[in-house]
Amino acid sequence: MAKIHGGQVIARALRAEGVDTVFALTGGHIISILDGCMQEGIRVIDVRHEQAAAHCAEAYSRLTGRLGVALVTAGPGVTDAVTGVATAFYSNIPMLLLGGRHLKRQELMGGLQEMDHPRMFHSITAWAGTAWETNRLADHIAHAARAAFAGRGGPVFLDIPMDVGLDMVDEAEVNWPADYRANQPRLAGPGTLDEIVNHLAAASRPVLFAGGGFHPSGAEALRVVAEALQAPVYLNSRARGSVPFGHPLLGNHARTQAFAAADLVLGLGVDWDFRTGYGRKIHPDATVIQVDADAGKIGWNRPAHIGLEADPAAVIRQLAELTDRLSGEVAWAEEMRFIELGKQADLDLQADDDASPVMPQRFGRDVASFFGSDAIVSVDGGDIVSTTARWLQVSHPGHVLDPGPFGTLGTGAPYAIAAKVAFPDRRVGIVFGDGGFGFNGMEYDTMVRHGLPIVGVLGNDGVWSNIKTFHRAFYPDRLVGTDLGVRRYDKMVEGLGGYGEFVTDPREIRPALERAEASGLPALVNVHLAETVRMSSNYSQ
């Protein structure tokens, strides 16, 4: 049998896992793995910062359902990726970070960039370890993938000493694992399923709410159950798009009112965290049914009358087969729809403003109209993202890429890169705040080098708006570190070889976006927004 080096073993194991792309930033400790990817036909997208590589891997996993992989060098290469791994951890996204490591034979000798990386990752991964033997590398990839997809899913970390990657091994000495991951979802047992159906059937004001632990495979069943119950549906995180934009039962603005009036809430992979008012907005007498693959999420901050550890998508598919036992009150759905339409009308009035600089609601409406219902949109910022989210027309599961509860800035460009790599024929866009752009704006260079025509649009009010709101509430006369100034980020993109345009007139937002897309280049439309004063921030919840 032929001899192969450790990097080839890793690449073959990744290919067997279904990986066709890795996101990397080169370094001496990982050259064997990069070479293995080249030899095994795995595409390498090289980025400009390791944080971006990790974000790319997370988004790739979210969009494809396959294992997203980031590859970074030892020491600072690995530490640079920590934020991306933490973001994936708190969003429950399976991904693999492969790190280089100092030579095994130089362990504890102070070699270049020597560091015990796994110890750093134990609190933000499902598993972290080191591969010490070349002939065991495929085993380690299998173990990492198994841990990444367990439960809700989460990131894993594996580092490979440089000599373990470079060493040669006979192919016959390598154990090539197969069928090493669970391939059947956890379902509700007959008794529990019957109990859930009985509660749903008895409810007069049910609400369905799907969140970050809800897999896209349950989207159609969710719609079927909602229609049978005539129940308003609310979505956040990865579940957004599971019910298409414009569906009469899909809520966007009235979740607080629906929770307050509901007599039953069916939570599917939801987090009762700051984004959902810690579950406290639900009527105290409402029945709460919570289905989650992670038992640790059940009853968290809000008691669950029925707490089922199972795959939420699989359970909603079970319920969809029993809709003959479900019926709902049309009046309840119409009541919530009336509130939704009233709130939307208020937003429409705000969005009709022709003022310059541009008002945020006008920005959100026109940007969402341009992207439409089929685009994949990555969002990167604070206030401008929450404003635009009210308008986005997403109609496909997972097509709004946000950083989840960790609230990371800098995800916009990497998420979009992964989306365009995975789906080159789809329209891919980014909504930036000017603060968010500053973290990984250099990834426009990655887009240019790899020929990824992504359209970015930036809401530029020249301040850290969310933080300025919070700071002002406590120390109104001593603001510090809250102002950025209105900068020409579009010129930076032009300098990197992309298309840039600066907009101050709201009537030019849509035409500028159309020109950006027509350029065929990675593009940034930089829109000057009015600085607006708000009375609250996410920190006050």
- Subunit arrangement of the protein: single chain
Helix content: 25-40%
CATH architectural label of the largest domain: 3-Layer(aba) Sandwich
Q: Can you tell me the CATH class of the largest domain?
A: Alpha Beta
The helix-and-strand class reads: alpha/beta
Tell me, rounded to a whole number, the average pLDDT.
94
As residue ranges, the low-confidence spans are: none
- Helix segment count? 21
User: How many strands?
Assistant: 19
How many structural domains? Answer: 3
Instruction: Please tell me what the overall shape is.
Output: globular
Distance between the termini: 63 Å
Q: Outline the biggest β-sheet.
A: 6 strands, parallel
According to CATH, the homologous superfamily of the largest domain is Thiamin diphosphate (ThDP)-binding fold, Pyr/PP domains
What is the radius of gyration computed over CA atoms, rounded to a whole number of angstroms? 24 Å
The amount of beta strand, in percent, is: 15-25%
Q: What's the quick description here?
A:
With 541 residues, this protein is of the alpha/beta class. It is built from 21 helices and 19 strands.
Any descriptors?
Rossmann fold, 3 domains, 17% strand, six-stranded parallel sheet, alpha/beta, 541 residues, 19 strands, 21 helices, single chain, 38% helix
